[in-house]
Amino acid sequence: MTRRHFVADNAEAIERGLAGYCALHADRLALQTDPRYVLRAVPATDKVALLSGGGSGHEPLHVGFVGTGMLDAAVPGEVFSSPSAAQVRAATLAADHGRGVLHIVKNYTGDVINFRLAAEACRAAGVDVATVVVDDDVPSAVRGSVPGRRGTVATVVVEKICGAAAEAGLGLSELATLGQRVVDRARSVGVALTAGTSYSSDDSAFTLAEGKLEFGVGIHGERGTDRITAEDLPSLVRRCLDLLAADLADTGGIVGPQLLLVNGLGATTSLELSAVYGEVAAQLADRGVELVRAVVDDLVTSLDMRGVSLTLVRLDDELLRWWDAPCDAPAWRPADARPGVAPRPAPAVTPTSTAGQESHRVDPRVARWVEGILGVIAAHADELGELDRRAGDGDFGDNLRTVAQRCRVTAADGNPLHRLAEACSSIGGTSGPMLAVWFSGIARHLGGAVIGASDLADGLQAGTDAVRELGGAAPGDRTMVDAMVPAVDAARRAAGQPEATQYLVLEAARMGAEAAAASTADLVARRGRASYVGEAARGTADPGAVAISLFLAAGADAWS
Questions:
Q1: Does 445 qualify as catalytic in the annotation?
Q2: 438-470: pLDDT as tens digits
Q3: Which residue ranges make up each domain of the chain?
Q4: Would you give the end-to-end CA distance of the chain in angstroms?
Q5: Model-level pTM?
Q6: What is the CA angle 436-119-136, rounded to 5?
């Protein structure tokens, strides 16, 4: 097979790529590696700090936009997976200089959850935090729905306009209001000819038949909302502009002074991007639209996806003034080649772990359960990743492997389920925090030297309640909750029987979860990234629900 990448896997791409980029721009960027985030090399003072972040694979977003006039800090997660709450918390505390921090968050479930958890932790530590959630991607959902539209290229516009305003001294609440104004005026749509390919496997996120085009693609490698016959450039541009105009119908369509961003998704040539710009500009002129500013560049990519997205933002005099303000971020304008030097380290901020620290002896079968879960991950990560690729973005298997690696490193003493939860919380994304709170909830009832059947049922209930509170999912939404709730119900019934044993409780939970996980193949997702591909995910079981059934099977084995 022809090799597609110069690195062996996602981890190497992120580690080497970030180190090299920050070395090239060492006068402006400082890399912190544990936890991972990037700050300005020369911190600003007496201003509100701006922080954004998200999955790697979208470069130059977000690290390329750290600098005077834009961000103070950026937090890169794993490929196509949000940073963990611990990363965001550490970066927020490091970036704050006494006037608070504005989080600029793309509307993906994992990003929203982890930034929310980090903001709550920072407020508890005395740092004022406000949040702007960007949801500009028109095809992905009706605006205001749950989980809502994806956040894409308008994120850069919020970072630029709020960054300039922050340099001028605006306060935190003023910046949050300004950022929301930009979001309300921004609309985007993306199309692709080929999907991006993972550094770890060289597999494409989706494949297209000859003469077809993915319309409405996201930036995490998701399939489009529609698969259409490929059109010539004028027809495709007209289709995109008609969609944006229809979505803006309540405010008169595409009217007023407009900012246009023609964004390459990673593998589209500069000539093609320029051709797209020329056609868009001509059609906007035909529609009587005043185009006052434009950017044509790779701003928010999706690995090596061969595609393009269009973003329109209606400007007024104030927004135009902030847009035109000076900016010195590495990716904002072409940078001169710079000698490679070692990245300047940023001040480290080490979060305090909140995991349980039991000193007494825990039932050894809890450790056997955790060992069984790690074995399940080793045996089924590829299968779960393939399920996720069909229904979402394909990062689930890789994230579980990372959990297994980090759990082996940290599994020292105390309750092993807390160690497992801690490893889950470090990976970010959506699945990371969900599994972390599930395992933590279970662990609270499994901390004794002797664990009864009712303790197991209580633990599963507590973990499931915590997941539902954090993510807001319900049965039928096509998430891991679809397996958790039937597992709890079955465990409760088994625990109430006179002959109840720990094995019978977990085996009943496993059977309930397994049947429910299989039935998710018939559901259309209402939560998580699978919700963005709609009917395209039908026929594929939810990978999170399948994982829960496998983890419960490992528990039954531990108590058999």
A1: no
A2: 999 999 998 877 888 999 999 999 999 999 999
A3: 10-329, 364-558
A4: 45
A5: 0.84
A6: 95
